[in-house]
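Table S5 (text form). Sequence records supplied for joint modeling of the two-component complex.
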Amino acid sequence: MTTDPRSVAGKRLEIAERTQILIVGAGPAGIAAARHAHRGGAQVLLVDEHPVPFETMGESVPQIWGGRMGGAVRNRNAMTERMLEARPDLVELFEAGIDIRLGTACWGLFANQPNLGWMPGLVAGLVDEGQGSHLVGFDQAIVASGRRDMGLAFPGWDLPGVLGAGAALMLARLYDALDSRRAVMLGSTPEALLAALDLIDAGVTIAAVVEQAATPAAPEDLVARIRAAGVEIVTGEAPRGVTSDADGVTGLVLRNRTIPCDSVLLGVGAVPMIDLLHAAGARCAFDNDRGGFVPLLGTGGETSLPGIRAAGDCAGIWPAKTADPALAEAEGRLAAGAALAALGLADAPAENAPQPGPAADLGEYRKAWVRASVVEAVAEMPVCQCEEVTAREILEVSPPRYLNAPHLPNLTRSLTQILGEGPPDPDQIKRLTRAGMGPCQGRRCREQIQALLALQEDLSLGVVPLAGYRSPVRPISLAAAAMPEDPAIAAAWDSWFGMPRQWVPFWDVEEHYTVAALATEKEHVSE
Amino acid sequence: MSANNPIPGIDAGDDNRGAPVIVIGGGVTGLSTAFWLAEAGVDVLVLERGITGWEASGRNGGGCSHHHSPLFAEEQRLWPMMDELLGYPTEFRPNRIRIALSPEQFALYGRAVANARKQGFRADDLDAQTVRELVPLAGDNVHAGHYYHFGGHANPHRTVQAYAWALRDRGGRLRQHVTVTGFRRQGDRVTAVETDKGVFGCDHLVIAAGPQTGRLAAMLQVDIPMRAARAEMIVTEPLPLMPLGGIDGNGLYGRQTLRGNLAYGGGPHEWVETEEQPGGPRPSTPLAGSIARRVAELLPKAAHARVIRSWAGIIENTPDGRPVIDRPAPWQNLTVATLSGVGFGLSPASGRALMQLVMRGHCDFADLSSLRLARFDRLEPDWDALQGWLPAAMASA
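The corresponding structure-token record, covering 924 residues in total, follows.
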């Protein structure tokens, strides 16, 4: 059997370690999964990226931290201590002997599938600041990567003090390092109001909840709890801007008033964090009742990639699940049970996964917010902060600013003229405008761009495709990404395919090409 | 800002009107061909199954230095004028420095330089110190380098769209999300293209559909031997611009983009099945780490730069890795093109050559004899197995 020496055939991935069940994310779902898998007799590796390096937090990765991390987050040991205080279950799991690694991010999951078949099995890339990257082989993975906040642009939203509602909660509860005392919440979804109540409990004053619609989005009982906590609910308003000083936001500007505050919390959408799963090739679809794009799941939380499962918020977010961690825990246990069964260590679990009820039209709600805040903004501001792309530039498919191209309002280049028969594709818009192409990897703008395109073309939100995620789903330095390598890869390395005749100059090409003729060597340009 | 009209088709009102020339494939080769045809006054229609430039045309290194090709001289002549010709920016920037980290690399890269010099292009040898002066991110590990006073690089995404827009400006049509299902023929002529959106009549057909070219041509009993492979690239966050973006070497192809990102690829590829239905996920693999290692070696002062994406592309290859640009027998009105994995940089020239093939039957500015399909007439039937080009599953079966 001939093999192409320059191909992956015969090359090995340097897999540094193996585990039976890899669990990504040590929130309620991940902890429950780890406990269940461990008790079932499996070898478990539980990783969580928190505490996240300070520099990474500054890039709004993986949450929109908005510069409101207290100075304490620079001290990673202290932050690890705080995480263990916040999640005492982790201590119990440590003591039970589970391999738990905090401050370790999973930047990629890799599975053989159509067009990709050479890997020795399921593989994950892990990175630990200071220790670089390595590969872990696993039999089953449970991704419990949680949620993040939908970004929402308004003039000044790129200033320190504008952060995600969930990010604020994480800083307050997990890091005990939220640098904010008085905040305004944008959005009145159940997730936003539950976050507001939790933040109040953590000692933050919520100066107001601002909702663009005429009435709050959350059910009455939750609205009543917010009002009972003394929080004003301002409806029919969207941010017109902020007041600020050298430390960032000092107030939120509405139509006729300014609400003093040191932070503005983005609470218009809680988004399942599917980056790892989508980048791995798991099929995802828009599900209104689960908070947006989520992986398509079979029994035991299995994605379209066999052996890779999802549990917790990344599998779907709905009010009851937000209110009660028991639902995420149930999903974690179920995924772990199914993973154990796949390993032959248990019978398949009989229970069913918790299911969401029908939700209000999430697409209309997010579009309405983007219309009120972004489209009707009184000034132009970046929607994509990394690459500084405005809503107008996105919709006009303008070349990026670094080209200094003259602005030509040329119909030929408009969005509608590049569509063809399909819906607008955010990845196509990204390639042309660079919106979503920066170091935050589209975390702040992805849902807004989806909504902008849907508004422009008068489509329902879910019709606009998901802007693709790519590994590494966390930015990692070239130096850290350089993992140990099979010497056979180095020995056969070529900048391209290393074919014996590809770069032979055209005046030296034989009239007929046969494989047999390759026995005669010709000078050629490959490594 | 919002529109109340239904999704506007690009050709609303045109419906399923055919065209004197139909090009199948909205990648860089098909679009360039269509652009040159429209520029010459031909009414041309491009049919694309997905989105323009979605596959390899938009996923490559953007290099424009194909010294081995009969189209090299025309490639070099055209690139500097493409922005003006198309009316849209391609981000083309001329010249390149290829860095060798060892005497072996320097000797190897010297072969390309010899090819270019033989065709009248200038390239200078650089010592290590000069390389470091010209390439601020280079390090102490430089052995030597070459400065190409030709070639360069462009932005694949922007170039593909520039072709598409320029085509439209000249009255050409592009329909995306149209899948070809068959052909109608009369004697030795193709008369129409059958698709999921209807039947489009044509006087001449061009097939330039990347990895799908072989499958489509086979429907017309034309055998274009090819196999598809997956290759990967990585990109970093933006860094301050170096004086010259066209920097590669150390077993890598790629560039610093005008935005400042380092975008590089290289290393092992994987032979895969040609998809019946293209457009599936294109996950990359941990090979990104091997590319990152070599970028950090090539540009050590960028080792801190963070990788923010990697991606994979599917590339078709003919048995010798060289393009096929031809009008295959017995058809009187069929032109086929596969650029065999190196189509981006050559696209201004290949499109112009294909335009001439369609309109005149031959190319007047380059000798395309080395790109004829007939060179495979004596090819072994099991050439793919003999070369080890079978997907792993197929090879082990």
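Note: DSSP finds 16 helices and 22 strands in chain A.
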